[in-house]
Recover the amino acids of this structure.
């Protein structure tokens, strides 16, 4: 049986502190798998520089000179984690039989990559890395993450619980993924919709090896909201339901006021009137904002702009002037 070529895609944004260790650990995994004859000797580690402001790209070039397994692509600017990831996946699928995506911070256990490959060799097209527990998370992050998965399930979005972006995908799964052309691509939701045979590998998540998290609270909220609005129209339907309930309550209140007026028991109700106005006004503004979010997504999709721009592609051999400039920067 022909040994599959594996590419490990690693999105990077300002990861100079952890990059050498990431390369070392992933290289050790590849060498072990090659020695076991589970993957082809041409297998690679593809670092995707998502417009980093530090020495990440310089380090990728240095690692490539020292390590035959390392290669990289550089995006023209910072596009965000999900778009950097899809850029790596779409680049890697051209030469690879299967691709594994993993973050550079080494929180995901590289030791289970072997289990991913074994599942692939058994015939599975998608293998999810799922966390056993969330011990390394703060109580707040654990609570919000669990709330997010429950909310997405309630809204009808099919997600794998406690799975982020640590997964293996076969070439045909990646080919199918490439047919999804939307700009607002929520990968965790899209991959779950692809079908094909899937398997799960459980692992314990570790502490971050070095550096700081690139997902503060603001980005996590934006990511969750983007996932919800990309896959579910439940929020729009909730507005309709709230509007209907508000109408019913207002109608009942109107009947009560009319009866009070006719029976001579009507009192001036400035406070209740002001509360009602503020409540309805706030509800209307919230509703308009939510509808605007969906319209904004439609606006972005209709323009059909590319999701990312690759400045330098070392993986495919299209280096260009960027590498020469990087080499010059290293000498300086």
């Amino acid at each position: 049986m022909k040994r599959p070529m594996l590419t490990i895609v690693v999105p990077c944004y300002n990861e100079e502190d952890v990059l050498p260790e990431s390369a070392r650990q992933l290289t050790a995994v590849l060498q072990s798998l090659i020695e076991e004859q589970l993957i082809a000797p041409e297998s690679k580690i593809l670092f995707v520089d998502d417009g980093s402001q530090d020495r990440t790209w310089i380090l990728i070039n240095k690692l490539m000179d020292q390590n035959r397994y390392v290669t990289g692509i550089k995006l023209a600017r910072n596009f965000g984690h999900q778009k950097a990831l899809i850029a790596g996946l779409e680049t890697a699928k051209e030469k690879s039989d299967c691709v594994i995506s993993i973050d550079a911070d080494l929180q995901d256990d590289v030791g289970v990559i072997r289990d991913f490959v074994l599942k692939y060799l058994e015939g599975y097209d998608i293998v999810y890395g799922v966390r056993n527990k969330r011990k390394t998370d703060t109580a707040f992050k654990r609570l919000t993450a669990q709330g997010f998965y429950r909310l997405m399930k309630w809204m009808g979005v099919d997600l794998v619980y406690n799975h982020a972006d640590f997964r293996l995908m076969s070439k045909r799964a990646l080919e199918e993924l490439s047919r999804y052309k939307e700009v607002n691509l929520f990968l965790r939701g899209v991959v779950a919709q692809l079908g094909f045979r899937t398997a799960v590998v459980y692992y314990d998540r570790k502490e971050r090896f070095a550096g700081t998290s690139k997902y503060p609270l603001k980005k996590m909220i934006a990511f969750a909201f983007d996932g919800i609005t990309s896959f579910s129209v439940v929020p729009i339907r909730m507005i309709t339901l709230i509007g209907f309930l508000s109408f019913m309550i207002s109608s009942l209140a109107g009947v009560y006021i009319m009866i009070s007026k006719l029976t001579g028991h009507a009192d001036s109700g400035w406070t209740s009137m002001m509360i009602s106005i503020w409540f309805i006004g706030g509800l209307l503004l919230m509703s308009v904002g939510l509808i605007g979010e969906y319209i904004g997504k439609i606006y972005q999709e209709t323009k059909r702009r590319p999701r990312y721009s690759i400045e330098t592609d070392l993986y495919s051999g299209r280096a260009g002037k960027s590498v020469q400039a990087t080499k010059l920067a290293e000498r300086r």
